[in-house]
Amino acid sequence: MSEPIPVEVGLVYEGERVRKQDMQVELGGPSVTEKFEIVRVRKTDEITDGAIEIIGPDITQMTEGNVHPLGILVELAGERVEPDLEGVVERRIHEYCNYIEGFMHLNQRYDIWIRLSKKSYKKGLTSLKIIGHVMHELFKNELPIIEKVQITFITDPLEIKPLYAEALKTYEARDARARGLSDDDVSEFYGCALCQSFAPTHVCVITPQRYANCGAISWFDGRAAAGIDPKGPIYAIAKGECLDKEKGEYSGVNESARQRSMGEVKRVYLYSAFGYPHTSCGCFEGIAFYIPEVDGFGIVLRSFRDLTVNGLAFSTMADSTAGGRQIDGFHGISIEYMRSKKFIDADGGYHRVVWMPHETKDRLKPFIAPDVFPAIATELDVKNIEDLHAFLAGHNHPVTERWRATDAAAGVEAAQQVQVFSGGDIPLTVAGFRIILKNAKITAEKVIIQPIRPHVKPGGEHHDAKKQ
To answer: How far is CA 56 from CA 70, 281, 406, in A?
Structure first.
């Protein structure tokens, strides 16, 4: 580094978490509405290389333990730097910030969440300008086509507001560009390994109709990134043979997943949340979660702060969804994927979605069939699963056809399962260990209760099997 840096910077710190009790300050995050990071391409004479500006209070002027707003504007210039690279370089902010000891960066775009540790603050990481110097050096060294980098940090809420609105328009313009392209129109997809520091087996597959989980990388972004840095974290994936058109399974994607996950992930369904669902990292914008009681899906975005209809918060379900695992019924997704015609298409798409927050529903209205839209419940309509069942039946939601089909085939109404346990802590004792299931809900179609008969030892001594 050309500037003295008081903490270490390197790959070893990727994936480092800063817990609340250990943080000096928090920037952005769930409790801040207006926050963003954006990259804009400028003409060479419009910016000054290495210039770093802070608009608003710096870290030393922030109260310890408090949450503060943040906007990050990175301006680039170079003869070969095109606007198509904005989204690609933007995602590198996440990667480069996480190289810094004690500086945790999560999510992207309008969802950034940053924490600085007390330990690194005491070492001298006391200014956002230091963060800027690290970013500047890494951008220039890792992406040689960039000739100039100018960085501005905005912490003044009044200054963030208009820039936030402008950033949202830019994100939308980028996203809209890819909507006219079909997965059938291209010969290759793209993969992204930027989140493997947090989720080592995560393999993000980016197609024209399936945006990256983080919502920051489109198929066009992937093509641009792989073009300028073929050996970088965003790479081309040959589609190969289409093994299942409905579920979206391709031989090339499967092979790439095996290699990138070190054999952990062997098959991927791009359009289904069951069987071999696309893995989830931790930066996903939302979760599609299966609700077995009604045989439908709920959707919740990271910004929703209340409990969902199944009694769980986003953060609770995120713990079950993230980590690069393939979890049936828990599917990390982006807003743009929710706008796609391929959104959980193999599972029924929006004809299978039964609940989402009202703000999300309004946001997605243009992409939901008019006959289904009023039948999807929100937190304003229902508070629990029982209410949801009644709402769906009353609005003749398409999933009610599935209930009738199940009833006719099995003689049992799938939505009326017997609830054995619900919520709270469920303790289990197995082989000397006590296992506690937090906020668990367990359902079963049938419950069989059998008495444990005492075992009679030779000589007539009774020995209760429960005590063995």
So the answer is: 9, 33, 60
pLDDT digits (tens, 9 = 90+) for 91-110: 899 989 999 999 999 988 99
Selection from 391, 396, 417 nearest residue 406 by Cα: 417
50 neighbors 137 (Cβ within 8 angstroms): no
Give the C-alpha separation, 237 to 252, whole Å. 7
Residues 6+ apart with CB under 8 A from 359: 304
Q: How far apart are CA 248 and CA 326, in angstroms?
A: 15
Give the integer Cα–Cα distance in Å for 181 and 219: 9
How large is the angle between the packed helices 86-97 and 219-228, nearest 10 degrees?
A: 70
**What pLDDT digit, counting tens, does each position of 227-271 carry?**
888 888 899 999 999 999 999 999 999 999 999 999 999 999 999
For each of the domains in the chain, give its residue range(s) and CATH number, in order of start: 11-178 (3.30.1650.10), 180-412 (3.40.1470.10), 417-468 (no CATH)
Lowest mean pLDDT among 13-27, 151-165, 319-333, 397-411: 397-411
CA angle 248, 249, 255 (to 5 degrees): 145
Instruction: Tell me which residue of 191, 115, 146, 154 sits closest to 40, measured CA to CA.
Output: 146
The tokens of 197 are what? 């520091």
Which tokens belong to 82? 């095109």
The C-alpha atoms of residue 41 and residue 143 are separated, in whole angstroms, by 14
Q: Which two tokens stand for residue 166?
A: 């402008």
Name the token pair of 362.
Answer: 């309004």
| Residues whose CB falls within 8 Å of the CB of residue 223, separated by 6 or more in sequence, listed in order | 190
